[in-house]
């Protein structure tokens, strides 16, 4: 395990075991992301597509006997192969994710969520792939083998660095759109602190073709300022330093109002774009929430 890994090999093995508890992946009809495509099947099955007159060489097991009786001539069932479900995950590991006031780092929660989704997909025979956007963006073509999932999870499990810009969300969404094919299920994992209404068109482009869920990593202690005197703060993005007086009640009020306004705008953005939205907190086990979201 790399020295900058957010989660240990032992923790990842436990997550692989826990992924079996994500029963929602096996019953997508009751999932918030239920869609028209049959999903989470072991292998490619057959789905009835049409009925047509019997042709020489047709499998007699596929004769539609009731339709044949009604029409007075042999009718064959035409099947098409079910497409294996694909799951794509976009994980944003920007410098701001290396933060938490309680529990574990936002980045670690994001890695946990990615691992649980990846392992659950494999258990159900789905393809898993996606992107990890940090200092650079890494792409992982979907596959059903463990090494494909581990490559994605390993990239998400690397601790984000410092002193580089936030992820260009618009570019990341455009790249995800190119990687995905129609009716893939997409999971976006981030704190979404830098997302705004300018992304609405990009998100709608995704939801028109895909089932999309935003998994927002939240540190509850970040939502308000506690009165602890003067704080020296350093931006993880550009290294700029700032001193704030947390004993200033007006400053605390303005900060809380700004954080609340951003959260409300974010929730409206997800709603208007047609996405499902769940919050994963840094001081709580993400498994129960993911079981509902998936």
From TrEMBL:
It comes from the Bacteria. Residues 50-264 form the DUF58 domain. This is DUF58 domain-containing protein.
